[in-house]
């Protein structure tokens, strides 16, 4: 079964054709990073205007490089949340129109589920049966959360960030240090050769006695990155000069260490609390080399396999959306076609 996926939840305009859920026949992505760079972050209005301009060409590109056509695909899949309302609407309207025009089913997919599912979309990936129950760490520019995945479509949110996302913390740090956008890859590069222990930045939520729960979530499995960001801001303000050279390298290495420690510590705790066959990390921040090293070391320590997405599927893409849609079709759980986008969509059981 060939599914055309469409993804426009933030600033990537993406379309892909995936066969039987795992074989990526094409994965076309137009990254709008250059358009948003002058503003130091994603500007929703600019994002939606670029989706309007680029999406038709990106869909054509995805079909062409897969050697497929509108007629030959079996179904369409689209991200209907969470994300920026004005961005989601562009992909959603396009997918709905195509579905009606072609008379082919449309399957709505949760963006976070797409990220988490992408770990299965590579040749040497474990099967779902071998991987579940699995602990999932979702780390992107918009969200950071820990999810207990009982099986495909059966999820339990264990904890999430109570303020900034991990990617956002890196993006904001790069802005504070005048390094550009997006911050994650820039901080990683600038940190090379730096001392990760030069500055002790906070790991968030660790030194509080304000109770064990945040809403219904275990405080020890939730993240907080806003204090870390403020701590960097204060540190830099207290310097009487703009850091550069070795000093800048050390600051970036220490900051990256704090972000990746904060994530790894929670995964470690969750692995002690829940019995799982594997754990996974997905989303843009999962590209981070130091985070991958720490999680790999944790995997060895716990004797629990670590599953990572292929690099081409870590940042936003439509292949992961088509991949989840196939699972819904396979399990007969496509449900009703979504009537509208939902910018605050939560992970829900199928
Ligand atoms: O998953 P994604 O493409 O977008 C969202 O759904 O939010 O993730 C984008 C985020 C950005 O915050 C970016 O700075 C971060 O992923 N990122 C990285 C790296 N590459 C991208 N963070 C750390 N290290 C990287 N190498």
Describe the protein's architecture and organization.
By secondary structure, this protein is of the alpha/beta class. It has 2 domains: 2-117 and 313-330, 2-Layer Sandwich (Nucleotidyltransferase, domain 5), CATH 3.30.420; 132-308, 2-Layer Sandwich (Nucleotidyltransferase, domain 5), CATH 3.30.420.40. Helices cover 41% and strands 19% of the residues. It is built from 11 helices and 12 strands. The strands form 3 sheets. The chain has a 5-stranded mixed β-sheet with strand order 3-2-1-4-5, with helices on both faces. A 5-stranded mixed β-sheet has the order 8-7-6-11-12, with helices on both faces. Helix 9 packs parallel to helix 10 (289-302). The radius of gyration is 20 Å and the shape is globular. The chain binds 5'-O-[(R)-(carboxyoxy)(hydroxy)phosphoryl]adenosine (KG4). 5'-O-[(R)-(carboxyoxy)(hydroxy)phosphoryl]adenosine binds at residues 10, 140-142, 167, 170-171, 182-185, 188, 283-285, 287-288, 315-316.
Report the average pLDDT across residues: 95
Helix content: 40-55%
Helix/strand structural class: alpha/beta
- The span between the termini is 20 Å
- Describe the oligomeric state of these chains in a short phrase: single chain
Strand order of the largest sheet: 3-2-1-4-5
Number of strands: 12
Task: Describe the largest sheet.
Answer: 5 strands, mixed
Q: Compounds present?
A: 5'-O-[(R)-(carboxyoxy)(hydroxy)phosphoryl]adenosine
Q: Say which CATH homologous superfamily of the largest domain is assigned.
A: ATPase, nucleotide binding domain
CATH class of the largest domain: Alpha Beta
Gross morphology is globular
Mind telling me which CATH architecture of the largest domain this is?
Answer: 2-Layer Sandwich
**Unreliable sequence segments:** none
Q: Number of helical runs?
A: 11
């Amino acid at each position: 079964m060939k599914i055309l996926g469409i993804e426009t939840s933030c600033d990537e305009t993406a379309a892909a054709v995936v066969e039987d859920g795992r074989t990526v026949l094409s994965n076309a992505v137009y990254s709008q990073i250059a358009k948003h760079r002058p503003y130091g972050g994603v500007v929703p209005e600019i994002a939606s205007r670029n989706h309007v301009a680029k999406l038709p060409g990106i869909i054509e590109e995805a079909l062409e490089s897969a050697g497929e056509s509108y007629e030959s695909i079996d179904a369409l899949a689209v991200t209907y949340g969470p994300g920026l309302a004005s961005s989601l609407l562009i992909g959603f309207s396009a997918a709905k129109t195509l579905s009606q025009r072609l008379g082919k089913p449309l399957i709505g997919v949760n963006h976070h589920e797409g990220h988490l599912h992408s770990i299965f979309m590579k040749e040497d990936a474990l099967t779902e049966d071998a991987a579940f129950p699995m602990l999932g760490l979702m780390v992107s520019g918009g969200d950071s959360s820990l999810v207990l995945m009982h099986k495909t479509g059966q999820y339990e949110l264990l904890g999430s960030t109570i303020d900034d996302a991990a990617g956002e913390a890196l993006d904001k740090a790069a802005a504070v240090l005048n390094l550009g956008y997006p911050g994650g890859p820039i901080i990683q590069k600038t940190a090379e050769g730096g001392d990760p222990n030069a500055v002790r930045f906070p790991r968030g939520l660790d030194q509080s006695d304000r109770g064990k729960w945040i809403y219904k979530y275990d405080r020890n499995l939730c993240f907080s990155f806003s204090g870390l960001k403020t701590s960097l801001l204060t540190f830099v303000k207290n310097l009487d000069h703009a850091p550069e050279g070795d000093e800048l390298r050390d600051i970036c290495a220490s900051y990256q260490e704090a972000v990746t420690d904060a994530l790894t510590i929670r995964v470690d705790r969750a692995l002690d609390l829940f019995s799982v066959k594997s754990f996974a990390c997905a989303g843009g921040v999962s590209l981070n080399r130091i985070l991958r090293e720490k999680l790999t070391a944790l995997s060895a320590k716990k004797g629990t396999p670590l599953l990572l997405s292929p690099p081409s599927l870590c940042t936003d893409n439509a292949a992961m959306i088509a991949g989840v849609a196939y699972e819904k079709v396979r399990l007969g759980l496509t449900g009703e076609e979504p009537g509208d986008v939902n910018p605050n969509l939560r992970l829900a059981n199928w």
